[in-house]
Design a protein that fits this description.
The protein has 210 residues and is mostly helical. It is built from eight helices and two strands. The chain has a two-stranded antiparallel ribbon. The radius of gyration is 24 Å and the shape is extended.
Amino acid sequence: MVDGGFRILGGAHRWQAAKTLGMDEVPCVVLSDDKWQDLDLQKFVTVRLNQLHGTTNTDKMIVLYRELEKKYGEKSMQRLFAYTNADAWGKLVKQMKKSLKAAGLPKDVQDKFDAAADGAKGVDDLGLILNKILNDHGDTLQFGFMVFSYGGKEHTYIAMSKDTRVAVNQVLEHCKSWGKNVNDVIAEVTAAWVEKAEALEQEELSAEAG
């Protein structure tokens, strides 16, 4: 690296094992060309080697893909990631489909997602597809919501009724007026609801035991 240090692109677990065994030296290849000072390239090679020889963290993979896609363009990224990206992409799509199934959406809706995902070029496209599915079929969700993750974050889609939407908009307006973060308000409200639900469950258990 420019500061004179080194970064392990492949073999971090082996390096940790060598330290645990008390080894002072291990064989390695030092990449000293100027191009290896590019942090994006270092990230890419690290993930690619991890895919080939280890496990894949799909969320991190998608985040990295999006970062590099902005810099190098979509076609360049497709060439760089080759089949390994297709594998990661397939895992992401499969995970989202499982989330649709867990939310109670019928099989024909899941099939619609499958067909639409085939033409998606990135996670933004998948987000648009999911939004459309929620708008068209939200009333069929078993519990009124579905949860999935990408980009290292968990996303919750909620099918709101008209009354709920009105109430949420009122909360948002009050948050603006009071300078409050809506996440804090929602956390406070849901915490109170959970406390009440747990108390009711405890009463039911006590009644059954009695």
